[in-house]
Amino acid sequence: MESSIDEFFRNVLGERTAVADQLENVHGLAWEVVDPALLALCRMRVAMLLDYQYELGISKIDLDAEKISSLSQWSSSSLFTERERSCLRFTEEFVVDVSSIPDSSAFAVRDHLGDEGFVNFVNALLVVEQRIRLQTVWEKIFQEVST
Amino acid sequence: MTRSLRVPSSNFDNRFREALSLWQEEVVQLGLVDPVTTEMVRLRCAEHHDCHT
User: Fold this and answer.
1) Residue range A99-104: average pLDDT?
2) SS3 for chain A, per residue?
3) Does A120 contact B48 at a Cβ distance shorter than 8 Å?
4) Which of A17, A69, B26, B44 has its CA 20 to 30 A from that of B37?
5) Mean of the pLDDT values across residues A12-24?
6) Predicted ipTM?
7) How far from chain centre, in Å, is Cα A118?
């Protein structure tokens, strides 16, 4: 699945292979510097919020099905750990209004992941969120052009 | 809400930091959008993300 998304970006970018190379590289590293299960959970929440159906069907790792079905109720569900909750809260606020994330949300993530883990997480979230937004916009543009 | 740095921003994985920089460098070197529009968009994004670079 991931390779088909990489292929999508390469098709769109055409001759701009350096951009596609760097995007693949930074996206791959995002999954190395953050716990992949945690990032997968947050990426799925981003896809839900942005209504990006394609991303909802893929995963870097196998997520628990019950957890996925409860993801929109993470704040009240007992399936999620405090670490996951803090990251999901931050993720939602990041998607909705990145410039207004409360200190309490940021510090909760930092407390769970540490200083370095926090910065890695925020940058990984940036990469996966921008990738989803790019896919969404480009696919819509191509649909409009082809009709 | 704090507007100062919450943690040292350089304090993260070196490979990841370098990869982010390389990606952004490649993007800003694209020539399909004129430089003035590119810079206006960049500044707007920086403001929105509260980014001081």
Assistant:
1) 91
2) CHHHHHHHHHHHHCCCHHHHHHHHHHHHHHHHHCCHHHHHHHHHHHHHHCCCHHHHCCCCCCCCHHHHHCHHHCCCCCCCCHHHHHHHHHHHHHHHCHHHCCHHHHHHHHHHHHHHHHHHHHHHHHHHHHHHHHHHHHHHHHHHHHC
3) no
4) A17
5) 92
6) 0.79
7) 15
- Distance (Å, whole) CA A137 – CA A43: 17
* Residues B33-44 pLDDT 10s: 888 988 898 888
Mean pLDDT (whole number) for A6-30: 91
Name the DSSP class of B10: T
Residues of chain A contacting residue B49, judged by C-beta atoms under 8 Å apart: 98-99
Which residues have CB under 8 Å from A131's CB, separation 6+? A5, A23, A27
Q: What angle do CA A127, B43, A48 make, to 5 degrees?
A: 35
The first and second tokens of residue B27, run together, are: 């993007």
Q: Which has the higher per-residue pLDDT, A137 or B7?
A: A137
CB A103 to CB B50 under 8 A?
Answer: no
Of A98, A101, A123, the CB nearest to B48: A98
